[in-house]
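User: Could you walk me through two proteins back to back? I'd like the raw sequence and the structure tokens for each, with a short line separating them so I can tell where one ends and the next begins.

Assistant: Of course. Protein one, sequence then structure:
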Amino acid sequence: MPQPSARDRFVTALRAAVHDGVLNKLTLGKPRDSESTLRNVFVRPVTLKAGPHWSFVWRHQDHDITKNHPAAEALTEIEGLLGETFLDAHLFTPLQTVQYETRENGRAHVKFQQASAAPSPAPESHDRMKSRVLNPTAPWLRALGITNDQGQPRAGQAPKFRQIQRFAELLQHLAAEAGLDIQKSCRIADMGSGKGYLTFATADLWEDRATVTGVESRPELVKLCNRVAAESGLNQLSFKAGRIGETDTGPIDLLIALHACDTATDDALAAGLNAGARLLVVAPCCQKELRPQLTAPAMLAPALRHGIFQERHAEFVTDALRALLLEAKGYHTKVFEFVTTEHTAKNLMIAAWRGPGASDASAALAQARAFAAFYGIQTHHLATRLGIELNP
């Protein structure tokens, strides 16, 4: 009886891994057409609302394309690629690694190797909270230059990668506090989205259940981010050109504004309130507005003659007053450091959400006015935007 071919042995191992539910991932490499922009295909099992599927990430030289297929279609797709489009394939299960190689002369070889590493975690579900929040092999992370093909941070990008993961983790918890279920639909706006790292992280967190809009004043970044979103299969993520405070977002549930400079943070907060947002998440930057107004209390005057203390004092007063003004509008507030200073010196985050048990709005307004009077503050951009008189 003739022995099964190398291809047959590989396909048998693949089908057995699928049948037994032990497939961790499959990679296809060494494209036969050296002129093609296609470099690799990465396949892994996922669980969608429609049931078990396989996620294919087609990695080209300058972009990625993600497609999901039911198991039967996925097997047919893979078998058509073996030895034809790609000369190399690796199958990974908790117990073994199987390599299938097609040489230039047409001869094929298969190699079975016992796995030495601990079993990989079970396939992640798209319908439950993710254990790592974001998948490090997400196409958009690679397209934005954060990770490489193996999902590892590129040189110099490890702090940024940790910041993105930390933000997604925090946002997940803040959304839960605000009663925003990441398993349900949501309308989200990111004001001053920049290159979109955290906008993409937010869209990834909600997957296809949220409509996410990034607002950015630089057209070249808007164009870049829209291209990456389309190529990464994030169909409900889009970016548009506009300035914070001048762009109508329509009704939203969540507003994000990270490192919007000086009073642009106030414009973003006001836009979120006007749009009815249940959750506001901002990381202020360059708090310059109040510094000329501040009257140093007599006890602090000797210390505040130093410029660095003046700067930090102005930051404290500005953000403390922002929190009080948000409470005066019926929001809960939380102020905290969201990353360490190794990532950015501007690491303070203000979160505010609507919900039962919020501070008494009239009491918070009185506190805001008393706080402003103590420091001699006559005007504050957020107070003006919210129609609040600090000195009635």
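----
Protein two, same layout:
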Amino acid sequence: MIDSVNNSSATILVADDDQSIRTVLHQALSDQGYHVRTAGTAAQLWDWVRSGDGDMVITDVVMPDEDGLDLVPRILKIRPTMRVVVMSARNTLSTAIRANQKGAFEYLPKPFDLKEVIEVVERALNVSAESVASPITDPVEEGLPLVGRSPAMQDVYRILGRLVGTDLTTLISGESGTGKELVARALHRYSKRSLRPFVALNMAAIPRELIESELFGHEKGAFTGATQRNAGRFEQAAGGTLFLDEIGDMPLEAQTRLLRVLQEGEYTTVGGRHPIKADVRIIAATHRDLRHLVRQAAFREDLFYRINVVPLRLPPLRERHADIPALVAHFSAQLADENLLAKHIDAQGMAFLKSYHWPGNVRELENLVRRLAALYSQETIGRAILEKELIETEGSPDSTPESLREAAEHHISRYFDAHGDALPSTGLYKRILNEVEFPLISLCLEAARGNQLQAAKILGINRNTLRKKIRELDIPLTRGGR
């Protein structure tokens, strides 16, 4: 039975201490035909809910009198079927997980897209009552390993927030160095299996003839050299999580056995006769296009659909340039454990890092931060050193395209090669354009010594357009810029 609300008569309660946000949401939702009431405090919102007013709630997390997340379970206790959407400018994984655990219907990071808000409201008002989440009391610790507040990472956080309370098989895809195992460990750490083992196996690092033994274990005498019984990774991970990294490199014969385990929920050791119950959550990862491998008959189609229950794509670092300063700070803070002194990267250096294409992704950035601390004595690192460390190590000057057009074609071709059939369905034009605009504007500002009027003249655009681009692309300004 659907416990939904007639949209034409639905009342939405909005709570946010920012008057401008209340005004924008009131206008946007009223234009859709909803009745809207807005409040600047959690206390006012609570009074309305307690009196039976409203059909759903949209509330900020940081309120002047109470944490909006703490209000969610109180609301659901007296109004179990009420849908509560939380908003927050604290766009971290912990916020997404806490929102899910508290029983929020949805988490919206700020700044939000009004179209998305309207879509969430429509879903909330038409979902069955049984689908509304129940609050979970387990606390979420801060200091999570995932860093970044870019829109690309917000999508990752929201999916993770929904997944931690489930046992669903998850397939993490992404280029090498994007942090796939880090995400898998975060999923395990905040799941109901967190007190049991997290066991990882890299398929690309195991000889083909040993993969079945590594996965399922073997009995004494099962093959030459098997002098004793060995437990496989399924047995080692019992009750916990089994992370199968680079599953695209798994041999077909091992894929067949893995599929049988996923279908039947049990396995036998190599040389064994008695089935063993497989009590593990499977998280798989790959940097390869599994759909392409399926078409090439290099990966079983039935296994692909078994492990692709929840697909989670990790964005490459070039799609989340805004996160680079936070990542540099994060990696720098870890240097003390290695007796290394963190370096300060100046504004021009940081602008260069944001414009760099990062073929090695986050791992390459982490290695750079460590290398700078180990090799350079100066406290501040500028663009010249970064170019030496990153560009000169990529290859000889002879391999550099001669013209701007050739350089752009080379870069876009690499992008298509890396993504294959996993290209985004929309927004590619804007994404590529942003990658070109960022270094172009940064270098013009540098050439004009921070003078925005002069930089605008070089670019052939007016100053207001330049200022808008600086804000949109989050371009750092040099000292004295005006």
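The longest helix spans residues 428-447.

Let me know if you want the two compared in more detail.
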